[in-house]
Write a structure and sequence with these properties.
Blueprint (H helix, E strand, L loop, with lengths): L1 H22 L4 H8 L4 H8 L2 H19 L7 E5 L6 E2 L1 H10 L5 H10 L3 E2 L3 H10 L3 E9 L3 H10 L9 E6 L1 H5 L11 H8 L14 H4 L4 E7 L15 H7 L4 E3 L11
Parallel strand pairs: 1-4, 1-6, 4-5, 6-7
Antiparallel strand pairs: 2-3
Length: about 270
Amino acid sequence: MNKVISSVLAASLCLASVGQLQANPTNNKSTAAKKLGLSTGVKWTQQSKEFPLITSYLYQQATQSLKERQLPKTPWLVIMDVDETLLNNSDYNKRLDLTGGSYTSDSWRAWVQEKNATAIPGAIEFVKTVIELGGQLAFVTNRNHLDDGDTWQNLVSVGFPIDAKNTCLTGKRPQDKKAIDHKTIINDKDLRRNEFTSGKATQCWAQDKALKTLWNRDFTLVMQVGDNIEDIAQTTQKNADISKLLQRQAQDILILPNAMYGSWGH
């Protein structure tokens, strides 16, 4: 009898287990879905009070520095990155988090073409100040240069007061990486920075020859702004000297926080 009871109990447990498996499937897909959620970097960027406080404060410091310093009487330039410096792309990263995806050039380009990035807190006011003080702006982005039009439209749509006279934008081109010689061209933005400061950024007047007089001239580089150490000329994660950069912060450089991605993650 005990053997019969044991057999019945065993069978019942098996059936119960099967029913539980059917009601609560534990295949790889559902397990992965349960684990999906926002990464810490995206949460901090989108939900914290610290992020807008810090970026706004840093931009205010840089603005004050510009207003207080002796600006050149000759043409002067501020070079800025775009992503996580002017435009907040955390919704793209949020999308990846919630779908279990990862960065691809195709998904990123689709996001760029949507033109739905928002402004980094403090950035619009800083750009306004540069223009009001008589400076020009060069936006040097690692977005593909084929997407420059979409990037420009996104910037204008969120309120940046830019036009072809005060601002020129250029994305990454094949020659930017090829030009790295580890002497004068250290990272893949150095070539474009050099072109801007020496008045050789031909894309700034390619569509309108009347703009050539504004851009085809030597500029004094007053400030460099970005969220990545490589947004500073001839600087990489490897050679960056924090003690020296700290003395320049909010003076002739400005580094903003980006907890989602960067050259530090490579």
